[in-house]
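HOLO CASE FILE
Compound: alpha-L-arabinofuranose
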Amino acid sequence: MLRARVALNPAAVVAPVSRRTFGSFVEHMGRCVYTGIYEPGHPLADEDGFRTDVLALARELGVSMIRYPGGNFVSGYRWEDGVGPREQRPRRRDLAWRSIETNEVGIDEFAKWAEKADVEIMYAVNLGTRGVQEALDVHEYVNHPEGTALSEQRRANGAEKPYGIKLWCLGNELDGPWQTGHKTPEEYGLLAASTARALRSAEPDLELVACGSSSSSMPTFGTWESTVLEHAYDVVDYVSCHAYYEEHDGDLGSFLASAVDMDFFVNSIVATADAVGARLKSTKKINLSFDEWNVWYLSRFQNAPLPEEWKVAPPVIEDRYNVADAVVVGNLLISLLRHSDRVTAACQAQLVNVIAPIMTEPGGPAWKQTIFHPFAKTAALAKGDVLRLHIDAPSYDTAKYGTAPLVDAVATHDPATGDVTVFAVNRDVENPVEFAVDLTAFGADLTVAESWTLTDDDVYAYNSKEDPERVTLRPSGAVTLDAGTATITLPRVSWNAVRLSRP
Ligand code: AHR
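Model generated. Tokens follow.
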């Protein structure tokens, strides 16, 4: 049997778990909004047209925060189109996804949905085709209490109280040539800084996110962040990171090690941001908002161009996720948690239908994809402090990321309850690994409260409307506790969570 081990220490704290790590993303794209969260004719729609089955699943997923309204969409969006009487709202072309936006849902509707789902809104402004004034306008509409043209317009539209949105993205992926209004780092850095200054004059304690690179494969990865932060360091709080992973050409081993790349991404951007801070002689630290991450079979999308015909909410990138995808998603969450000292906000992209943990059929059911499960369980069990781990594990060779450990894990300790939770993946495609977790530093009275595993004989098994429970979490019997050491048998290609508590 392959073996790995780790000793946990309650004093080795990385940072408290940030609830914002469990963010998601709702973009006006494909069927995420229309027939996703919103479908007025659906038998389960509420009085506002929201699907109550999707709302219930979003709550079960444990999502804490949602980035809205894009994504690439936001770079051509006019927020004013989505407020006021519905019958007067214009239909527009969305150039990003080559579809028709009806504007039936806008910020007022989304804020209502967010309240029902009990999530914080992270609002993205358009810095592609628009600028400082429009960012100020939407801020006045959503956050100014009353007595100005736009705050009164919101009140007249039915929202008496301001929405109090704290977290704002200054545009989206403006390094990407595909982005409407794509910019050089100089142009974007200046615009982000002046938008940030203006927004801060209106509300000083906003938390502002400057766009980082749209992926680590961009030729400007690192230099983009550096230039942007040279301009905006003092007035922003975060720089964004975006990363999507997929299995290429049957190379499951590399795919399962995707979190190695996420670790590299985070470490690189932390170093880049800190280097700018050092140059500016600033003691302030810029944190990372990993506000788009997931498994996305992007190569399939790139080979299948967007539809010729302009349609309302056409299905776009409705990836179907398998067991291996769920293990990778669980591992990416492990990576995000491990970096909780600097990654204090993150959004899985996206929530419904578009590369999403929740799928719906128009007029029909909603179901959970495989990736729903590790997200929901991590969001439910990661509490208190994230602990720093030094795992001693066998390794394997990957074509993409070199030598990678077979086991990756993170642990949290909640001083309030005494609970210790270990999240672990086994990347071995053939063998189980016995993972010994030394808990003696926590005293003798911990017991196994719950243990879960996601695995399957068929690593490509998936859920569907017909078989929505084909892949799910199963209670794992494979945990023993002896002399202060928990031994967890991690099945091959698996994601696992074990919570230990005091009786
Ligand atoms: O999440 C899908 C798309 O991926 C987003 O619109 C964009 O920001 C990213 O490239």
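CASE NOTES: The two ends are 32 Å apart (CA to CA). Residues 27, 29, 70-72, 172-173, 214, 292, 349-350 surround alpha-L-arabinofuranose (CB under 6 Å).
CLOSED: yes
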